[in-house]
Amino acid sequence: MGKLTTEKSIHACLLTPRGKAVSDLYLLEGNSDELILLTLRDHAVSTVARLRQFALGYQLRIGIVDAWSILDMQGKHATDGLRHFNLPEPENEWLETCHADDIHILAMLKNSRGFWVIGNTLRLNAMLESSSPTRINADQREAIRIIRGIPRFGMDWNEKVYPMNANLVEFDGVSFDKGCYVGQEITSRMHWRGGIKKRLYRVTLENAPDAIPCPILTTAKIGMLTSAATDAANTCFGIAHLPIEVAESDTSLSLENGSTVNIIEACHA
User: What domains can be seen in the chain, in order of their start residue?
Assistant: First the structure.
């Protein structure tokens, strides 16, 4: 939390005592001593319930804000969209934040344009109605995420996977010098004692998988392909959960349908 400022948001997780994730979160400073917490809709109720358990001795208001939404701007013209709405532009660093009259702009990607515009739903809808932006559907947005190698909680990892094995360090979502927190002991032990055996990797595939998720093989099943999408050039990209030792070797990888799997890099911000 010490990293959180008006100009810089943070990525984090709520953990169980055993170090497994309950939900992942993006936190940014709002107005009037408020914090804005962004999480998946499917995990919002459980996230609020867990946070309320730790409000002992404090006067806190924690809840789901139904009146707010996120306008997701992606692609090479994302900055044009900000200018059209007279909104300030972050410097395009990972989780850099800027604000404009109760509108919050969060730079979501480090090496390619992408922003979340957060604010009152009625106001965001009015902004959209005053222009004619190119809109994409949920499947197209999911394909963009996968092609760029951005893991999603609930898809590429979940409560069964330790966050340290889901590249949370690479996404600057773990602190090793803060005070005690739920799940800290196991998280710290995995870091300092070399307990991180697997990571999420951005990969390309010779052919699209028959189904998702599906096993990744050497001579045996050693990993899992969790997401896949094909770009405009007909190249199939994916996100895979693989042993670090195998990924950093010259071991040949394939799917059960014989499609070759090539590792590009570890998923990172």
Answer: 10-146 (no CATH), 163-266 (2.40.30.160)
